[in-house]
Each structure stands twice: as structure tokens, then as C-alpha cells.
Amino acid sequence: MFKLLPHPILSLTLWIIWLLLNNTVAAGHMLLGLILAIVIPLLTARFWPEKVRILAPLTLLKYIAIVLWDIVIANLMIAKLIVGRNDKLKPAFFRIELDIQTPIGISILANTISLTPGTVSCDLSADRRYLLVHSLHTENASDDIKQIKQRYETPLIKVFTSC
Q1: 117 and which of 41, 74, 99, 151 could share a cystine (Cβ 3.0–4.6 Å)?
Q2: How many domains are contained in the chain?
Q3: CB environment 14-53: b (16+ within 10 A), e (fewer)
């Protein structure tokens, strides 16, 4: 069974995303999504250096809810900033010192930052200790760093670990 599903979490995620993107649970789409959810991880298994383990699934669900809420709020805030006068914008780059060590955790953190409107993760240092982030509007970079670490990085540390 493990050879058929080398990354079961990825397979389940791909299948759910397929169904959500197609907005249907018709038998044909369920079957095609299932085939893709099995084939894609099989073809990409050698590119995954470690197996993904979720230690705290409830923390992960809470994390997803927080990220979705933050995306909605950030959209409203960025829309207000963009519609207003551009001279009020205070763009900034800042570096976040990372406590998270797993590649999947770092990747999800960087993607979460980029998914949230108004911020984008730009670069990861070669030693994987710092993440460079650009913010469209920053009043206080240290407060933004503290919020990212508290809302995103801390739960990810609890959820993901190396095998």
C-alpha cells in the first residue's frame, strides 16, 4: 500500500483540491481526481527528501482557519490602502529569524506569507535561518515579525517534524 501511496497526505490534498477546483463531486471527477492523486505523488516521490508527518492535526485545522481569516482581513486592509492615497503606504523589507527547521514547514510558512495580501516572502538564506519578507505597508517591522512568528510559525512548528 505504501508503494501505491508514497505520500498519502499529498494524495488526499490533491484529490480534495481537484474536487474543489471543479466544484463537483460527480463520479467522473472523483475518479479522475483519484487517479491524479495517486499518479502525481508516484511521479514526484523521489523529489521529496523526507516523509511528511502531521503531529497535531487539530492545530493544523486551527492554523488553516487563522490563515483564511487573515487573508480576508488583509484583502480588506490592502483594498483600503490602495484606494486611498499612495503617499500613506510604507513599504518595507524585513528579515525573520526562523525557529522552524523542517523544509516543509519553511515552505508552508513562506507560502502563507505570500498568500496573505500585502506581504510576499522574497528569499530564504542559504543556511535556512532567515526569511526575507516584503510588506506593502508596515508601521513597525518588529511587530509584523512578532505577529508572523506567533500566528504562523509557532503552529507550524507544532504540526510538522522530520521523520
Answers
A1: 74
A2: 2
A3: bbeebbeeeeeeeeeeeeebeeebbeebeeeeeeeeeebe
